[in-house]
Amino acid sequence: MNAPDKFAPLLTLTREPFPASTKVFVPGTQAGVQVPMREIALTNGERVTVYDTSGPYTDPTVSIDVRKGLAPVRAAWIEARGDTEAYSGRERQALDDGVKHEVPDAHAAERIAALRGEAAALQRTPRRAKGGIGAGANVTQMHYARQGIVTPEMEYIAIRENGKRDWMREYLGDPEREARLRGNPMGARIPEIITPEFVREEVARGRAIIPANINHPELEPMIIGRNFGVKINANIGNSAVTSSIEEEVEKLVWSIRWGGDTVMDLSTGKNIHTTRDWIVRNSPVPIGTVPIYQALEKVGGVAEDLSWEIFRDTLIEQAEQGIDYFTIHAGVRLPFIHLTTKRRTGIVSRGGSILAKWCITHHKENFLYTHFEEICEIMKAYDVSFSLGDGLRPGSGADANDEAQFAELRTLGELTQIAWKHDVQTMIEGPGHVPMHLIQANMDEQLKHCHEAPFYTLGPLTIDIAPGYDHIASAIGAAMIGWMGTAMLCYVTPKEHLGLPDRDDVKQGIIAYKIAAHAADIAKGHPGARARDDAMSKARFEFRWRDQFALGLDPDTAEAYHDETLPKDSSKEA
Amino acid sequence: MNAPDKFAPLLTLTREPFPASTKVFVPGTQAGVQVPMREIALTNGERVTVYDTSGPYTDPTVSIDVRKGLAPVRAAWIEARGDTEAYSGRERQALDDGVKHEVPDAHAAERIAALRGEAAALQRTPRRAKGGIGAGANVTQMHYARQGIVTPEMEYIAIRENGKRDWMREYLGDPEREARLRGNPMGARIPEIITPEFVREEVARGRAIIPANINHPELEPMIIGRNFGVKINANIGNSAVTSSIEEEVEKLVWSIRWGGDTVMDLSTGKNIHTTRDWIVRNSPVPIGTVPIYQALEKVGGVAEDLSWEIFRDTLIEQAEQGIDYFTIHAGVRLPFIHLTTKRRTGIVSRGGSILAKWCITHHKENFLYTHFEEICEIMKAYDVSFSLGDGLRPGSGADANDEAQFAELRTLGELTQIAWKHDVQTMIEGPGHVPMHLIQANMDEQLKHCHEAPFYTLGPLTIDIAPGYDHIASAIGAAMIGWMGTAMLCYVTPKEHLGLPDRDDVKQGIIAYKIAAHAADIAKGHPGARARDDAMSKARFEFRWRDQFALGLDPDTAEAYHDETLPKDSSKEA
Predict the structure, then answer these.
(1) Do B574 and A532 touch (CB under 8 A)?
(2) pTM assigned to the model
């Protein structure tokens, strides 16, 4: 791990725009809708515009202070809806940033005070639905959608998903080619042009979600659904050794620079609460968490000491901070746990293990399952989306598609119906480890039992014998399941199964998953997805090297590889 | 590139056995059949045996001198068949190791003499079918197979493909699991046990080939066919700067260490002939070439100066050296060339471009097509297999599955029938660049028009925008087409489209393709393929780290990654 003082300069570095690229904005009709895109100026005068997850960081005209956070682009929209209220918020506790056994330590209090002081400007007054939790108010995008309201978020997303189409005519204009390359959507129904109304319909139907907590106004809205571009998630977590604002924010910025559409903060141990402030306030992408991780810290790591009360309090704590989606392992039901006993690799999900232990010790049903409607009440007061966790996902090809996995999946489908009854946005997490020939069944079962709620899979890894290369073993499965209808792919890094990913591992994982997602978009026939490939191919045919670098997913590596072996101009005509 | 004097120590390094591994031999019933496998001793006392492409190099009991070459394990079998004869061979010419414009240079003669002197012990007296080319003698494995003869090569392959099965019982014995994970062979018919008779039938039917030139007695026989394990090919080529025996052999040894099942020598420029001697004499895997590359050097790089006579002479030159398969672009027919004019990326195959230029300049049909039966006469006198090249393969997703590509494919099907009439073993090369949703059509068309002759594809790359990561973009396509029935996958390295691969790029490409091939084997339900994954998963569940490293495709990287972030023992229980 790099020392924290190295991160400030790194952060400056990751703010550099990509080669030949500028940030452009496409305005919407609603106030404040200005959708950022990356425009690449090619050497032949063409301009190519691509989807941009990197936020204001790659815009040199924006001055950013990570100790103050990003501009709240959504604040006026949230305010204008008039259905939320600012309030004092839950009272903060030392334990939010600590672990149980440290509570009595005076030193811990000092440490936390220092941490919080450093991030004082990042504290926002939380908002909630008017009347608070349980009062029946509902501020979810799904709730608006079902009332027929096209929110600014929805219009923003429609523009963002379409991208600019004018430059694509050069590439998508040949009728023979278009007919020959027409995608196979495998049941998806992607319109030629995404309208704000289409976004609304998809969200109302539950087929797509817009993770957008009202306490995360810094967010550039994005959508997760099978009729939109396939998205990817990258995971980050606090360092075991030390934390600084710069370090944590730099990890985030690095992830979104290379294409992370959402980022999950999987921090454990100390400083969880304050680190989360740092991340959310500086994040233009949705942030997801697994709240049971923090709850477990609060009970000193003893799973059986968890309770609904501690968990509920943690949900509110994180909802107030602005987390956009929660992984909730409510499908790990007591009657399913014995189904894992004959498995090759038992229960490998951390959340799944924690809850299985709790259920077995108390011989009681999972409290996330029994309190599910209460969780919905919290979610709808802040617009936090569910990511229903697959705590019984297979940890090896040997355990793929077994009864434990599918029993849980069917339960997640039941829970989806309950969430939808509350107009709470919901996606479903999926495996994990699945050989290629069993992938389609995962998608089929998910579509059938979860009623087309967006699927969000980890890989899946297609084989088990590639430690050190699991980003590749899983990119194969990810590309396939993305084509079949999975809406978001959770990345896997080369360090999977071996250790903690460093900066380069994170990048390797993200690029592998951008490849998988893009391959899926092209196979599905996502409108315009192929144009960038065609622009690349034309640049290749015409030996325009600079344009090839700029159009690639990783211009730096492409240029470095080229120069390494073919530094001379004459070699550029290989 | 490393200087040549660095390669001798590197070669020593690549001779190191893999961790916890020893070379074991399984005997057959025929004389001299001793099939090498790699046995991994796990820390729990289990022994896992895996397919081993690395040859005697990973056997510390074998002393190897690259200036003398490997032991000729097949020599007695070839001799015993009594249908071949040693002969003086084609007279060598300075041009074999040079390029046309250098011929008059006295310095060139000196250089070549020195090169050849260095490799004097690698010169073997060539053999051919009794009576020589065109006399009707036929020494191909297909010819024997069709006569009902089970050769030692066939028995060797049957044993090699089965592997040892006893250790697998632990992993493949659960009926519920076996039923759940049963492969989907997509039309392949893979028996539970591969018998020598089955190998014979598949070769007789043309559904599999055994590339095994009678002048390559050092070969450890292997098979390429859809009813066997999916194989991979790695490409090597001489260095532009300098050549030494150690350097060229080290590239080969490095490639087969990581799992290259065959290696193509794509050398161009100087020293081609002698470099090939070095490679073939030291190679336990089949070596393929593209003879038109050398023929082009002989005419000074001017495609239109090529002639059937020069090409024919080059085929004989290489057949005498022991090349096991030739890429022959006989399907690039004159009437197809205009079909490429509307393409995004025209003709990208080097061989395809050379022949298209020749055809257009002379406005004549491709001489490889018009002389195809004469080529068959050469192939059957040495048992060189055809790899019918797809000179019109698409160079971008935009050009995938177009009429130029499929017109050539149908021609390759016609040529396959002609080759089979001569009992010449034949496989068919395929793309290249194909989006996921168009891959199945490639396999379907190939099976239909080429009568199940083995398919040998380059990737295919599923997207075009990943320069620097094309090994990943193509491993996705390779895994899918492997599952669908492709018999061998030609690797792509991270330097594809950018420059020349170095040592690490070669390894990255090979590992990505081992992943793709193994994922395909598991999806097809290749018997026993899953057992190694299960052994890995069990080791994972039991935190046996050393066993995880040893069972992985790349033990060195897995261990290094583990130790990098989790060096302490306590961390090994993550």
Answers:
(1) no
(2) 0.97
